[in-house]
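Table 4 source record.
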Amino acid sequence: MRGRGTLLGLALLGSLVSVGGCALMPASGPASWDVWAGQHDPGNIPYAFVRITPKIASILGKAVPRLVGEFPDRSRPTDIRFGIGDIVSVTIFEATSGGLFIPAEAGVRPGNFINIPNQPVDVNGNISIPYAGAIRARGRTQVELQQAIVDALKDRAIEPQAIVSIVEQRTSLINVIAEGRATRIPAQLAPERVLDAITRGGGPGGPGPDMWILLERNGRRALAPFGALLYEPTNNILVHPNDTIYLYREPQTFLAFGALGNQQQIPFGMWRISLAEAVAKAGGLADATADPASIFLYRGETREVAEAMGIDCTPFQGPIIPVIYNINFRNPASYFLATTFEMRNKDVIYVSNSVSAEATKFLTYLRTVTSTLNDPVNYAISGLALRNIIKTPITTTTTSVFTGSAPIIGVPVPAP
């Protein structure tokens, strides 16, 4: 009866493990078929499943964080216009002496001009010109303000001409904020680019692949690694007056889980890396357990990028769509795709175990369970045998073994 009970228990346990073995086995993450099946539990976060193809890699290559992506207009900035608080200098010329500003006796002067004292643009946006009154300066360029002064004086002065120059610029500024300092630099009449403005503002504050640049203009923002300005010249766009350039340091990292050499948080170590480089940094695939066809990358994509990849975004809420990408390293051509697929900050790489590795774990677990159940049975059988031996009476006689004529040893022999 005890032997039958043991066999019955083993059979029930075996059937239970065979049905729910995957759920019982220890693992570092979901099985590959669970990821491929998609999210069917309405209580959990839904996600989109996308296989990496050349088309997908091309779409994502255009969606990387770059300045030129948010500000594609490469036209030169508009001319600098005066604002309230700017200090300007005005010089007025007349064709001959004896006019409004140049008296007749001043003919010996080296030039028929007069300098008006420097003055700021007042709160009403005006400057004051003698005999012309208040001239609007706010919102006007240097040329426009000069023409306005000439128009106001042409009926009084002799062929007047005016030259306006800015003494101190207080409105058309560029803010450069870096680690430990903030600088406001005046915008230049000649167009300059982002790196020029950063240089005038004191530089990036330190080298390194972890430097990021944030450009804000008219309520819009663009973010890019600082290395993109150096190695991709198209990102070194023209700056405009009143731009804000913010430089800060943020290490880029990704997480590696599953059947990889290491399971940890790994820094990029450079301003960008590819998926192939990330897998290599994680120690590569574990030869004994990894399934090369089950390499998954977890990332949140914007709704625009997800729709460009053909994802139906109606089941998702919010601007960020959870996406799981899959690449098959059993296909030799996939390594080319992996070198063009650019990693993002905080990406998660997960490599699932192969079916053979799961089967090996199941058989090892089953062997452990079987041995655990057999041990008490073996102990019980051994104990019964020992008890029977102890209870059986044993009588012995001594028999001498002779070699020749002399006994060598006495051996106990059981009585018949």
